[in-house]
């Protein structure tokens, strides 16, 4: 496939992100050829992505590639690709839990999975990490219906709920083996509950953690400190040189301003998230429950139950996390992670990429 012709595509909002969903069979099999096509489809590199589907922000420059599962333990395979906005990079180094919310409905509508009556569960293998997720959503009369009364912060209106559960994975919850590390002279907790994340008390960097994303992005001193921490933490977490990657994420923690457990400001990795990613919230939630972690002196944990309300710039995200220790004084293990998201199909049709080799102009 050259991409000169149109490509079948579904544009969907998944959680608080928006992305282009494709069947793997409709894209080139070779990664380099596929990535070149996706850059031309999304309109990258260009800060506005004016000549493609992208919305000029990392949260709206995302791609989900879905296929029938190659593993009997799953129904479908899902590859997430983060397409650079003003760069020609396409990264598969991370998952996206927000676009994940749309994978089940997309798979049913594309005929990869049959509807299971009035409610359907789809087992999804996230190819970026090999982890499994199970998405359950309404399919009244055997058809996907996104209408519903569930609202999530950062998205106007309501839609049908998509319950996403993450079975425990095999990777260590604490990649460094310690609940607290000193990185660039700043105490941090490095945690990975589906998304490599570095937790930092906002006060340790001289900010409140309640600033607007725009104000934080304008703080050059903060940006320099965060970059220093991220590069050093990436090596500690076994990720190598993370200069050109989008992980680990950095999440600043502050005491909650409402009825939440903690207030967050998350960097992806340079732009400040206007809300918080699902898997980022899963890592924050698990990190708050780790004895000796930096969140323990900041968060207000509930006295019982698994549910935590994570505050973010545009509201909150409720997530259920349970952490246990495999032995007294042993390593913490995530026992349960679940979240409710919503998703909605925006259009279903054909996208026409910018021609290959088209000249780029400033």
Describe it for me?
- By secondary structure, the chain is α+β, with helices and mostly antiparallel strands.
- The chain has 5 helices and 16 strands.
- It has helices at residues 31-42, 97-109, 213-217, 220-236, 278-288, and strands spanning 7-14, 17-23, 62-68, 76-83, 90-91, 119-126, 131-138, 161-166, 181-183, 186-192, 196-201, 249-254, 262-267, 307-312, 315-325, 332-351.
- Strands 1-2-3-4-6-7-8-16 form an 8-stranded mixed β-barrel.
Low-confidence stretches: none
Helix content: 10-25%
SSE order, one letter for each helix or strand: EEHEEEHEEEEEEHHEEHEEE
Alpha carbon gyration radius: 20 Å
Relative strand content: 25-35%
The gross shape turns out to be: globular
Judged by helices, strands and strand pairing, the structural class is alpha+beta
Mean of residue pLDDT? Answer: 93
For the secondary structure, the number of strands is 16
> What spatial order of strands do you see in the largest sheet?
1-2-3-4-6-7-8-16
The helix count comes to 5
Tag the structure with descriptive keywords:
5 helices; 362 residues; isomerase activity; FldA protein; alpha+beta; eight-stranded mixed β-barrel
Per-chain topology:
Layout: E1 7-14, E2 17-23, H1 31-42, E3 62-68, E4 76-83, E5 90-91, H2 97-109, E6 119-126, E7 131-138, E8 161-166, E9 181-183, E10 186-192, E11 196-201, H3 213-217, H4 220-236, E12 249-254, E13 262-267, H5 278-288, E14 307-312, E15 315-325, E16 332-351
Protein name: FldA protein
Organism: Streptomyces fructofermentans
GO molecular function: isomerase activity
